[in-house]
Task: structure prediction
Amino acid sequence: MPRPRPTIGAVAEENELPGDGAASSGPSADGALLARLAADERLRSGAPVHLRPIRPADAEALVSFHDRLSTEAVYRRYFFSHRHLTPAEVEHFTTVDYVDRMALVAEVDGRLVAVGRYERLTGTATAEAAFVVADEFQRQGIGTLLLEHLAERAWSVGITAFSAQTLAENREMVSVFVASGFPVEMSSAEGTVSVAFSIAPGDAYRQARDTRRASAAGGPTGGSGDGSWPDGAAPGR
Result:
């Protein structure tokens, strides 16, 4: 039996409509909103990383980023070999409504090095999440940063849970979910791991997040350095 592929990797036949009036302008969303969803964080090495919402203008950078990924990194993201993005995929991935479909890019020295995204499952309060990080920036805490910031945005627009699929061999991504502090439930089949969890910012999550924040503040001599967003505030991300 073939492995199930993450539905978030599929390209819609038509551009989806925005999720609600608050962000109905889609890719031309209010500049203040995009600024609120941006943040400066630090990697485990102490190096700065900038997170911000994806924009249609990122098309060329996204293509270049994907083309630099190793075969293994691409396979772990899409569950099949997919060396080049099609024009339709590029448009789909860079055009989001920032509500039901959201994507954040991570930049180091102005270069796109990671993408995290969620897509709400139609008619539900659950969104499927997916992440891909450049090979040379893996194990630096970027996946955790993207998860935290995506979860905050999702929670603010009425999404209450995330689901995701990853290959069982992708232990790094599994560890990101397990160590997040969210109450992760896992199941496995056919070499894939499915996770589902509430993204309510409960005590366990806050404690894990604050520990990561303290480690990040310590730079390369700290612990995980995965970073987090401030308590009670939209992440100045």
